[in-house]
Every structure is written in structure tokens, then in C-alpha cells.
Amino acid sequence: MRHDTLTLITADDALARRWHELVSAWTVKRVKSLDQLAPAPGIALIDRDTPDLPELGDATWRSLSSNENLLILASARPDDAEALLAIENGFSGYCHAFASIEQLHQVVSVVASGELWVGRSLVTRLIRAVDRTPAHTSAWATDLTGRESEIARRAANGESNADIANALGISERTVKSHLSSVFEKLKVADRLQLALRVHGIR
User: What are phi and psi of 75, to 5 degrees?
Assistant: First the structure.
């Protein structure tokens, strides 16, 4: 399904002008309240400070997201707990409202492709939480080389590229190359999905 329309929901005119720089990639329209969001398939970038938004636990959000809308919550004061609550209640993304246009473009692109977007700190916390579950010796590594398997396991346990490079005596560029191959072979998009696969959760 295509999501070519990006609806900006904010009462902040300055923020709306800033977000409008995303217009080159999507058909962008702006509304000032949630009740103006069209039911048609599309992506909605929602300013957390928009007046009269429902609480994040409200059923409204799940209803909107099940109606073929992909929702991204943008906060001027990002918080991991709020991000997790947003994702649990139907949002596909959570980001800083004043992130660079390049990063906002990446956020919207990732969500449009069907993936989730949350901040690095929350991803790190989730990976560490996954790491506390027992590792599975399933067939996830069958198509990987020995080095790819080792790097995948280390990345899934939350090690940075620099940490992996130092531990294995290779360059960070080599680590990135191996991880690209791992992501392609395992058909995962990011380190969180890799961690879930390695630990047998997904």
C-alpha cells in the first residue's frame, strides 16, 4: 500500500513551516487538530503539543492506526517511556519535533516502508532487555559465515561497531560491511530486528 500523503498535525505555525520542507518527497498538507485527519491511507506527523490530543493510552490512536494511517508522534521533549507507550498504542514512529529535516525525512521514509522508528536510546534499552533472554541456537545463522555470525551475535547484544571492531581486531568499515550482509541475508532492517531474531523472539 502506498502512503504518499503526509499530514502535518500541529497548531504551531513555525513548526509547520519547518516541517513543510518535507514537501519534496510527499504530498504534504497541514491541519491544526486531530479531528481533521482524513481517514484515507497516509502518514500523519503529529506534534505532541497540539491542543486537545487524546492521552496516548486512548483507543482513538489504535482506531486511527488501524484505519490505514501510519502515525508518527513528534515531541519537543522526547522521553523513552512516552515513546514506548506511543508504539504500544498504534504509533509507527516517535521522534524529536525539532530533529533535522534530513532525520525527519528518514523517520517518515522508514515508517512509510512499514518499519518502526524510535530513538537510539530506546532501541539500546530494548536490545539490552532482549539480551537478558536466553540466546537460541536456532537456524538463524545457517546462511551466515562464521565471522558474520559472530558479528551478528555481538551486535544483537548491544555492542557498537567500534566495540566489535576492537574486540575482533578489524576495522569499523569491515564490521559495517559484514552487518550489511547479515541484514540482507536475514532480511532484517536494523539492529533491533537483528536482536529479536538472534534471541529467538521473532
Answer: -115, 140
146-175 pLDDT, tens digit per residue, is 999 999 988 888 788 889 999 999 999 999
- At 85, the amino acid letter reads L
pLDDT at residue 1 is higher than 50: no
Spell out the residues 6+ positions from residue 158 whose beta carbon is closer than 8 angstroms to its own: 124, 127, 128, 131, 195
Structural domains of the chain sorted by starting position, each given as residue range(s) with its CATH number in brackets: 5-118 (3.40.50.2300), 124-198 (1.10.10.10)
Q: Is 86 helix (H, G, I), strand (E, B) or coil?
A: helix
Q: Which of 195, 183, 84 is nearest to 131 (CA)?
A: 195
Q: Which cell is 197 given? A: 531474531
Angstrom distance (rounded) from CA 84 to CA 71? 14
